[in-house]
Amino acid sequence: MPILEFKNVSKIYNNITKALTEVSFSVDEGEFVSIIGPSGSGKSTILRCINRLVDVTQGSIIFDGHDVNRADKKEIRQLRKKAGMIFQHYNLVNRLSVIENVLHGRLGYKSVIAGAIGRYTEEEKEKAFQILAKLGLTEQAYKRCDELSGGQKQRVGIARSLMQEPRLILCDEPIASLDPSSSKIIMDHLSIINETMRITCIVNLHQVDVALRYAKRIIGITAGQIVYDGPPDELTKVMIYEIYQSDEGELITDVR
Amino acid sequence: MDNIVEKVLKPQNQTSVFIKRKRTFTLAFLGVAALFGISAAITNYDVIDGFESIPKAAYWMARNFIPDEKAWSRLPDILAKLSETALVSVAVTVCAAICAFFFSLLGTETTKTARWLARTVRIVAAFFRNVPDVVWAILLLFSFGQNILTGFFALFFATFGLLTRTFIETIDEVSASCVEALHATGATGLQTVFNGVIPSSLPEIISWVLYMIETNIRASTLIGVLTATGIGYLFDLYYKRMDYSSAGLVVTSIVILVITIEMLSNKTRKVIM
Q1: B235 phi/psi in degrees, rounded to 5
Q2: What is the value of ipTM here, to two decimals?
């Protein structure tokens, strides 16, 4: 049974801008999917529809057996707990320490008051430190997030999403602001998480070569429509040109 | 052919841009000068006379406002009223800031609950902000009379309006990204406010509160004249009795207080930022 299913999903912003048109696909548990496509093609919108940061205009999204669009406030909270999210700009609370940011991943599990005043159980704290150790951030645990490098911040982002014990991790351009070596560390971590913890990963990427290397399945979208959906080794050059709507020799991947 | 045309045209275009700019400046200057001329003519304002009276005024102030023996004997009274005024200003600002913070949460893009409510919040804040504190004081004089409450509410309303607006902007600026991430973890609105909005915007908020405390100490002097309370009342009293040297001491003490507070808050800002 698929963990995530898009059925003819359309999204129109402010009655004018068409972001998604009749998008349908399904993702099985444990898959590592990469969504590629030009800026503004609707990649971010797809991710944000899944955890209802964005409401879709038409169609339905089934996540873990629940219709996301029909969910009320309480159900949305339940769904969001099960879907971790990682952002291009990390979106941490920069003035708080690393460990506090990681513990934020538990907020969805706590009562409103306990979460608001920041009461975490010993087990939760222990788990946070275990995750930090796994991501090589033990020494940074008590540092403030604005003292960290970009790569370290993104690892805190991953730690926060792992704290949620998610079934799905949504990554919105996780390496777009990182240098090549930090990018590799982040992608390696995501890939390990996917393989060892069986957490489904959907990763929006700008770098086609990275997508080809890490993903087991690639979804190419152009102007809000899926134009490719299949394994990376079947993604031909011609297909890539179609996804990015450009001619041969005009993509940076061609420079080699 | 095209090339030649470009070479000939380009410099001309550039000079015409400069000529246009010069023309705009000249017109603006002439406009301002004309406005000044008209208003001076209507109010019978004589520029030379105005400037000539400055040294005279300075001489008069130097002779009359220097505190004498009698003024110094009034120092304890002055200091008591001064500290009362300062403390009321601090209390007003803190109360208004707390109200404004929770009110502004309803008005920001990041934490709003409903669009119509956010718009209402902004309109209410704009109303409170755009009525000057002195006008608030005059309006409130009718309902509360000459009372310390009048001054308190006048300052409260003006501060509340201004802080609501600045808090809305601050929160949208510094908290938007972490609020999105916290929502994505399944955190509720209240949890997001306490774990994301407050920690990320607190330094800016404190900085604004400190600034408003400074502003309100200055403003409360003037409002005190209207409401017959605090240091403003004392100044008014001495001034109307033509006891200028005591009034001068009042002014000096206000200046010292304001400068001290400003230095203190600058230090505080440096520590928290």
Answers
A1: -60, -45
A2: 0.92
Q: Are A160 and B185 a contacting pair at CB < 8 A?
A: yes
Instruction: Indicate whether A77 and A105 sit together in one domain.
Output: no
CB-CB neighbors (< 8 A) of B178 in chain A: 91-94
Q: Which of A87, A100, A112 sits opposite B190 (nearest CB)?
A: A112
**Residues in A touching B185 (Cβ below 8 Å):** 80-81, 84-85, 104-105, 107-108, 160-161, 164
Q: Are residues B84 and B117 in the same domain?
A: yes
DSSP state of A97: B
Residues A51, A116, single domain; the answer is: no
Phi-psi region of B108 (alpha: psi -120 to 50; beta: other; left: phi over 0): beta
Which residues span the domain enclosing B38? 9-63
Model pLDDT for residues B149-197, shown as the tens digit of each residue: 899 999 999 999 999 999 999 999 989 999 999 999 999 999 999 999 9
CATH, residue A19: 3.40.50.300
- Domain, as residue range, for A93: 89-165
CA B39 to chain centre: 27
CB A190 within 8 A of CB A158: yes
A210-253: per-residue pLDDT in tens? 999 999 999 999 999 999 999 999 998 888 988 988 877 777 77
The answer to pTM > 0.80 is: yes
B202 to chain A, closest Cα gap in Å: 10
Q: Are strands A58-63 and A66-67 parallel, antiparallel or unpaired?
A: antiparallel
Please indicate whether, in this complex, the C-beta atoms of A115 and B187 are within 8 angstroms of each other.
yes
Neighbours of A59 (CB within 10 A): 18
